[in-house]
Prior knowledge:
InterPro entries: Methyltransf_25, SAM-dependent_MTases_sf. By secondary structure, the chain is an alpha/beta fold. The protein has 6 helices and 12 strands.
Amino acid sequence: MSHNDPIGAAIQDYLKGKKNGSITVACNIADDDIIPADYLFRQEEEMPELETIALEACRGHVLDVGAGAGCHSLLLQERGFQVTAIDISEGAADAMHKRGVTNVQLSDVMELKNQQYDTLLMLMNGIGIVGDLFGLYKFLVHAKTLLNPGGQILLESSDILYMYEQEDGSVLLDLNAGYYGEVEYNMKYKTHESGNFKWLFIDASLLEQYAEEHGYSFEVLYEGENGNYLAKLVLLGE
């Protein structure tokens, strides 16, 4: 396993019994965040309401994008779904094999070809992998090649405008810096470091605009208290 796979390394350590590990997530607009390794192995009763709603909304052949340790894929398998789990982390993909996920691919969703699904599942702010608004455009176009007619994308994102609020309630944005939801991350775990990568948080109204421009219907299935939400995009007929 390479040394730029912090999530995979933490997952592998957890499987070996080292269950107190945590991944440090550095962001260019906020203080560091911590992801405990055990959160990646959560059971159904430990999942937030948004995730349980998303799992209930799945149908047909599901592609679990950025599947991590496979907690969602395993639960869907138990419910009888056909599931394909993908992740770009070598350590995560190996762990999912070991945990019993039937179909695992070490792959980037943008590189998938000649595969058809009824549901693309993107939890844990999963749409963020597109990086920026241009990446979102490319993803929505590419997703049409992966979805069966009437197929759906279930995705989690957040409106992070609140992070730019001042003490007086006003919002301070650099209008020359692009969309405020385009941020930069770096993840670290022990000697593993991802290096800087782009991540997108998109507000629901802008996502709706992008979805409808690219041939999808749009519906918000859940809104959380901290600006996060679950959206369903359904591919419309041409």
